[in-house]
Design a protein that fits this description.
The protein is α+β, with helices and mostly antiparallel strands and 1201 residues long. Helix 11 packs across helix 12 and helix 12 runs antiparallel to helix 15. The two termini are 66 Å apart. The relative contact order is 0.10.
């Protein structure tokens, strides 16, 4: 239901929120003048000991910025700043015959100019308007042009009104960086020229009746008259005291003191960045806050620094602009195409240049200061290459397994067939996956390659070792020998295959689709691997025996059974009857490779070290794994029967008690120490440049206020059944809510008439107001202290007001408190005859965007001021009904007889909300607030009926920082509790947030981790009971498997891990590989051919001898297979540890750790348990099932048959 609420709101908002805005119609529009993305230069101290605000480090940062701006393609993709050159050129005269202008000197043909003057006689010529120039070399024509290339010529019949006008040539260049160096190193002339030559698009004016519009610019705030574009302008087009959302021109020109000297310590000029800096007004502190949070981390503080502020992290931003040429909007359906342009630019050479520049700068820089240059589009391209490079580690895993199998079997044919059948099981499973109607293989399924390499090799060893052991049993012919090996190994592999499949099926019951899909897919891969081992590989064993096994290529087959094409133990003069450590020919190369590899594992060359360790182990295994002759046991088999069994038999009780103590300790450690993570999981390793960049993103909010993720209170959607998913193909849901009209969706939104009815009632309206007011003074929203809603000319504006100033304004009558209606924070009504700038010290954030505030403003404050309504010259304002027979005004909002729906769909309210309110806010420079309001709160209509409404709360969860799970849940719980307390009048309203979906996923992962373990253990126990038909064997194996799981969880705590997202997935996945070794030993114990003690009263000594004999035979038969199986599994997973992606790395570590624990517990825990508690004398067997069958006559077979 919760996920359905998130999906339903997203789709409904997209469907009903109104038409897509053409951004070329917005006043702030210019091609590549809006920030599409940003490239960042990060300067950081590795150990945190370097002060980056020193003059030396700031000089280094400035040099880095210069080199970044010289990167290839930067001029093509940077954000464009449009400015005017010089003092402009005068219009000399007008050619009345041609309607062309005579200008000296002439602007270039095809250039853009801005007209400055008081036009008359030409309807499409505006003061501040921007036009395109076409010249014949003597005269020029001005054209109105659109972004799509359409033009309209302007004809002049007289010079009246324009002869004293001037044309300013428009110049375009890459916008200035947002950098600390701009303020640390004052360069008044150059900086003022870059800023004050700019112009600020204020509005668009219609032209020619063809839908064309002329962009009209306004003056730049803070610039001296001599350099400002409009020298005699007395009114600033923007409010430069706005604490957020202001243009860079306004921001920079206000903060740069043109009289400041360029000499001196940069730190002294940065002192104003301190939050408690002296001599700054409240509005200046807010503007400085914008600068501070853009270039310095949010954790930065200079209150304790002596002699000045210090930091170990700095960021500069290079704006990348959009819309790209040929596009008229930054967002919408063209966003993907424009993003692809950035991606292509990155892949075509930018990423290589950035990597080389980073390496060069970090190589040349002395000390611990490091540089990272990146952006989100660069990171995306980098991640693509990282996935490819990490995928190449699979080659290392396959190579290791292939070499080990070659060493174990002595056959290139069998080693190659092992790899072939293992990998072939993957496409076979995919084919069956497709037959079940599945169309995609999830991300987790990639991990199955590393898992099946170990499982497949394990099955191969069980079959091959049974074949080798059958050679010692005196079979007279190959058929009898192979039949015994095939039946013995096939039954053992069947038991482990079923247990492993069921453990993976347990993951298939997860509520997370990707985890569930992995579980079922993995079970199919394991089943197909068993099928291929029993058919393809079994046939290969016979082919090898018949044609290759006794063909020794180097020694003519006279020295030993052919192994790896030679006889390595004799070739190296190694005597396998002597202790290995006493033979330098063997141990010298082994120790050399091994020690060198281990040493390199603790250096940046860890991967090479791992390869050397693997080579050493394979070398040792290859020399010691061959048979002296076909009638002798292999060294590892001899070790288990003659070395390990006597040891474990002699010290079984000590080993058992020791392991029990370890298991109990790890279990207690897991129960006490296993916790949820305190920080969000990282995608890459800590020292990777991309991860350094991603970590730094959350440290720079970069807004003028505490911007947070928006939580939405939704009205109009069915709370209990928000989304109807019937008939939706969950594998091909289409573009979902992003393009709801095109081909498949996530489902259909289920709207609620009852919820809308509640909302439109008097109680519902007042409840929304109360909820919005409560959010403004609670801990669920982030807001600026001292921020009040001031109603000015019928429209509310968020303004900063100190308490003293507020009290003074109320006392002298400039402000009055709104007394009508509900709510705890009523708006303040201003005197509309005074300018808005008289009320407060700039704009601010109230913490909530509430559509009901706008409706109340319209009814109570706009329509309640009849003189104000009269100035608008709109007959439809404040009237309801088609004939306008009902007039609304002061007191209407709280009238229980008000037809609220009629108000919302009236022409008057539409004109107020879409024209009057937006225009007034734009004129006052409240552009950002207007944008936020349109997104964070609004109304949705269908067939002129209200179907959806929502309120946005600036929730206390930062957008750039990935909060740990516990903190996200805490935010969710606070918001949920707040919602429950503030929806009495709208019981069907609900609250959603984009991060809620991830919290739900995390909850499901955490619960699935323990559920899957429990289901897998239950499945394993049932399979062992059926396979052994003995309660004791199945239960003892279950105890060991449960101990393995507890040990794995305990080791997670020991190595400092928490139960995060990655760890939960790993726990679900690896449970399938933790049961094999114990199951093999338990099955071999039960199947051991020994003389069973019998009689009504069995002696303890007889039962003990039977248990000991069963254990000895089990170790001798499966010990060598389990050693080879665990080595191939460990070798296959070891290469995952060197991946850059944290998920792969942690998955490899956890899988490696679980495999090692499983192997050790099987031999050091299960074996002692069987020696002391294993069933003997036919005890603990389950009741025999009686089957009614017809007895068949025995058939007489001939020898040939």
């Amino acid at each position: 239901v919760a996920q359905g609420q998130v999906d339903a709101f997203a789709q409904a908002k997209q469907q009903l929120a109104g038409r897509q805005v053409n951004e070329s119609e917005l006043p702030e529009y210019e091609v590549r003048s809006q920030t599409m993305s940003a490239m960042h230069v990060l300067l950081f101290s590795v150990e945190g000991k370097e002060d980056l605000l020193s003059a030396r480090n700031l000089e280094f940062l400035r040099d880095v910025e210069r080199q970044v701006m010289k990167l290839g393609g930067m001029e093509e993709y940077c954000q464009i700043s449009h400015g005017v050159a010089g003092t402009g050129v005068a219009i000399t005269s007008v050619d009345s015959d041609s309607g062309l202008l005579v200008v000296e000197p002439q602007p270039a043909n095809g250039s853009s100019v801005i007209f400055r003057g008081t036009p008359s006689g030409v309807g499409d010529l505006y003061d501040g308007g921007r036009y395109l120039v076409v010249t014949d070399g003597k005269k020029i024509r001005l054209l109105v042009s659109s972004p799509s290339g359409e033009t309209l010529p302007l004809n002049f019949s007289t010079s009246s009104g324009i002869s004293e006008g001037r044309l300013y040539a428009v110049e375009s260049h890459c916008a200035s960086l947002t950098s600390l160096t701009t303020y640390a190193f004052s360069a008044p002339a150059a900086h003022q020229e870059a800023i004050c030559a700019g112009h600020v698009p204020v509005t668009f004016r219609p032209a020619g009746g063809k839908g064309l519009k002329v962009p009209v610019s306004g003056p730049v705030c803070g610039c001296p008259d001599s350099t400002a574009m409009f020298a005699n302008s007395t009114k600033c087009g923007l409010d430069c005291r706005d604490g957020f959302g202001v243009p860079m021109q306004c921001l920079s020109s206000r903060l740069v003191d043109s009289s400041a000297a360029s000499a001196g310590d940069p730190k002294s000029r940065l002192a104003s960045l301190c939050e408690d800096a002296e001599g700054l007004a409240a509005t200046e502190k807010k503007v400085w806050k914008r600068v501070r949070t853009s270039v310095l981390p949010s954790s930065w503080s200079c209150s304790e620094a002596v002699p000045g502020p210090a930091t170990d992290l700095i960021r500069s931003s290079v704006p990348i602009g959009g819309p790209m040429p040929g596009f008229t909007k930054l967002n919408g359906e063209t966003a993907g195409d424009q993003s692809k342009l950035l991606a292509d630019w990155t892949k075509d050479g930018l990423m290589k240049e950035l990597t080389e520049l980073e390496a060069k700068l970090n190589r040349e820089r002395q000390g611990e200061v490091r540089v990272v240059i990146s952006s989100m589009f660069v990171v995306q391209s980098l991640l693509d290459s990282i996935f490819v490079s990490d995928g190449l580690f699979a080659i290392g895993s396959v190579t290791f397994v292939w070499f080990w199998v070659w060493c174990s079997t002595g056959s290139l044919l069998l080693a190659t067939m092992c790899i072939y059948e293992t990998i072939a099981s993957l496409p076979m499973a995919m084919a069956l996956w497709g037959l079940f109607g599945q169309k995609y293989v999830g991300f987790l399924c990639v991990m199955m390659l590393f898992i099946i390499l170990g499982i497949g090799a394990d099955d191969v060893f069980v079959l091959y070792d049974a074949w080798k052991q059958s050679g010692l049993m005196g079979f007279e012919d190959t058929l009898s020998r192979f039949t015994w090996a095939y039946r013995t190994s096939g039954k053992a592999m069947l038991v482990t295959t079923i247990t492993t499949c069921f453990c993976f099926v347990a993951a298939g019951f997860s509520s997370i689709p990707s985890v569930s899909g992995f579980g079922w897919f993995a079970a199919m891969v394991v089943a197909f691997d068993y099928f291929l081992v029993m058919t393809l590989f079994a046939s290969s064993v016979l082919v090898f025996h018949k044609h290759f096994e006794r063909k020794n290529t180097l020694f003519g087959g006279k020295c030993c059974v052919g192994h790896m094409g030679c006889c390595p133990n004799r070739f190296t003069a190694v005597d396998l009857q002597q202790p290995l450590w006493k033979q330098p020919r063997l141990m010298g190369p082994f120790l050399g490779f091994f020690v060198m590899g281990v040493a390199l594992c603790f250096t940046p060359f860890a991967f090479i070290g791992a390869v050397l360790v693997c080579a050493a182990v394979i070398y040792l295994h290859g020399i010691t794994s061959g048979q002296q002759d076909s009638n002798s046991a292999r060294p590892i088999e001899t070790f288990f029967e003659k070395k390990f069994f006597p040891f474990i038999h002699r010290h079984s009780l000590k080993v058992l008690l020791t392991v029990c103590a370890i298991v109990l300790t790890l279990m207690i450690v897991a129960i006490v120490g296993l916790k949820l993570p305190d920080e969000a999981a990282k995608f890459l390793r800590d020292d990777h440049p991309a991860q350094v960049y991603l970590d730094a993103l959350g440290e720079f909010p970069g807004m003028g206020f505490d911007s947070r993720r928006t939580a939405y209170v939704v009205y109009g959607i069915n709370k209990e059944e928000p989304f109807d998913r019937d008939g939706v193909d969950y594998q091909e849901p289409g573009p979902s809510w992003q393009d709801p009209e095109g081909g498949g969706k996530l489902g259909e939104v289920v709207y609620s008439d009852r919820a809308i009815s509640d909302l439109m009632s008097k109680a519902g309206r007042e409840d929304v107001i109360k909820m919005c007011d409560a959010a403004r003074e609670s801990d669920v929203a982030e807001f600026d202290a001292g921020c009040h809603l001031i109603v000015w000319r019928g429209v509310s504006f968020p303004r900063l007001l100190s308490k003293d100033k507020l009290d003074a304004m109320v006392q002298d009558g400039r402000l009055s408190k709104f007394e009508g209606g509900a709510g705890s924070k009523p708006p303040l009504i201003s005197n509309s005859s005074l300018p808005l700038s008289d009320y407060g010290d700039g704009f601010c954030s109230v913490g909530v965007e509430c559509f009901m505030y706008d409706v109340r403003d319209y009814l109570e404050h706009f329509c309640g001021d009849t003189a104000l309504v009269a100035t608008m010259a709109r007959d439809s304002l404040c009237k309801l009904g088609e004939a306008g027979e009902k007039v609304v005004g002061r007191g209407s909002f709280g009238d229980d007889k008000l037809d609220f729906h009629a108000v919302l769909v009236s022409e008057g309210y539409e004109a107020y909300s879409k024209e009057i309110m937006l225009r007034l806010r734009k004129e006052q420079g409240n552009l950002h607030s207007g944008y936020v309001r349109s997104v964070a709160s609004g109304l949705g209509f269908k067939d002129n009926r209200l179907k959806l409404a929502w309120v946005g709360i600036n929730a206390s969860m930062p957008p750039g920082r990935r909060l740990p799970y516990k903190e996200q849940v805490a935010v969710k719980d606070r918001l949920t509790a707040f919602m429950e307390q503030n929806r009495q009048g709208n019981p069907n309203a609900f609250l959603v947030m984009d991060s809620f979906g991830w919290i739900l996923t995390a909850d499901a992962l955490f619960s699935s981790a323990f559920e899957s373990v429990a289901i897998a253990l239950a499945f394993s126990w049932c399979v062992l009971l059926v396979a052994s038909w003995n309660f004791a064997v199945g239960t003892l194996a279950l105890v060991v498997v449960g101990s393995i799981v507890a040990g794995a969880f305990g080791l997670m705590v020991v190595i400092g891990w928490t139960l995060g997202i990655i760890e939960s997935i790993a726990c679900i996945v690896v449970i399938g590989v933790s049961v094999d070794y114990s199951v093999h030993i338990a099955h071999a114990y039960q199947e051991a051919e020994v003389e069973v003690a019998s009689g009504e009263k069995l002696e303890a000594s007889d039962m003990r001898r039977e248990r000991e004999e069963r254990v000895r035979i089990a170790l001798g038969s499966v010990g060598i297979s389990l050693v080879s199986g665990v080595m191939t599994s460990l070798g296959a997973t070891m290469f995952l540890m060197f991946c850059n992606v944290t998920f792969f790395q942690k998955f490899g570590i956890f899988l490696f750790m679980t495999l090692a624990v499983s192997f050790l517990f099987a031999f050091l825990f299960l074996v002692p348990l069987l020696l002391h508690l294993g069933p003997a004398g036919g005890r603990c067997k389950l009741p025999r099932l009686q089957w009614r069958t017809r007895k068949a006559e025995p058939a007489q077979l001939t020898e040939n048959e």
